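Fold it.
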Amino acid sequence: MPQNQRRSAFALFALAISAFAIGATEFISVGLLPLISEDLHISVTTTGLTVTLYALGVTFGAPVLTALTSGVARKTLLLWIMIVFIVGNALAASATGIGALLAARVISAFSHGVFMSIGSTIAADLVPENRRASAISIMFSGLTIATVIGVPLGTYIGQEWGWRIAFMLITAAGIAAFFANLTLVPSSGLRKGNPVTFRDQAKVMANGRLLLVFAVTALGYGGTFVVYTYLSPVLSEISGFPEKTVALILVLYGAAIAIGNAIGGKAANRNPVSALLIMFLIQSAVLFVFTFTAPYPAASLITVFLMGLLAFMNVPGLQVYVVILAERFVPKAVDVASAINIAAFNAGIALGAYLGGIVTDTLGLMHTPWVGALMVAAAVLLTVWARLLENRDSKALGARRVLDSQGF
């Protein structure tokens, strides 16, 4: 492996470690809710604010903080992000009341949003243009590993030794990520952060092409969470799997996510829009099929694996396409556009989980798959629209080059 490629690989590894730590803290509260509720003598509903406020902190904090820090050198900002992450989780580990814990979760969420936005652009800068999506998928692999291993392990540790120990270990992971970024991520070769004005931010939010992709992100990514949020009760109550088996199936689901993320990165390298269209079509079909396979253990197991394979497959393509469009239309606000897309991911999670709850309460668990399929199908239609616009741009560019060659 050439020296430049080796350095890029190590730098991407450092970013993946950071994504692992951040992914672990994002989802860990779900597994620790009963323990926190019992220890702090509060209701599970109140404890659930540790999840809700975190998501809101990412959704609203990511674009604002990314804009405010746009003039900071990328590596310097990356290191400060991990310091904020370490502080937030250390405060969570030492919290003695729900107020302090919620404040700590919001602080951690702020680091999450900014990291995921600039992390994508850093990863893209580390490799040639035709490998951008793969680089972003490597960074996001840390997030998928956190889903597969970090969260179940953290939940187990919390059950055995207390929920604060779980947050302490996440803090330790953040410290490891800080030093990995310090030593492995280069200072040179990364695009400089350009100061972002209010006009630049307004251009991002006023650009129809970017808004279209943000909507695709929220619907296509969020459709999975209509089902995933309630996958455990579906597997136990409808498929008939024992509780311990359900836990193993969720590990299988997570492993499929890791595989799908890698496939999605490679598939989106050349033409992210076409790749996304195919992914969403298959994902919508698989979710719809799960409506009929859920009652049958063997068939449901196969379908769940396919659902996991497709769950995060769209992430690299969506993120790299936003970067491409931002470079084309709002080059001074690429990081802000990336941050807003991260917010769209989290908005999709919130929307999907909320919609899944309504469906479960009104229609029943059996209906969550086809409703999730409809949500992804809406993303398919929007992706077709985006593809038509790309084709129009390509024709216009080709015509312009012909005129230029003729001296017009």
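DSSP finds 16 helices and no strands in the chain.
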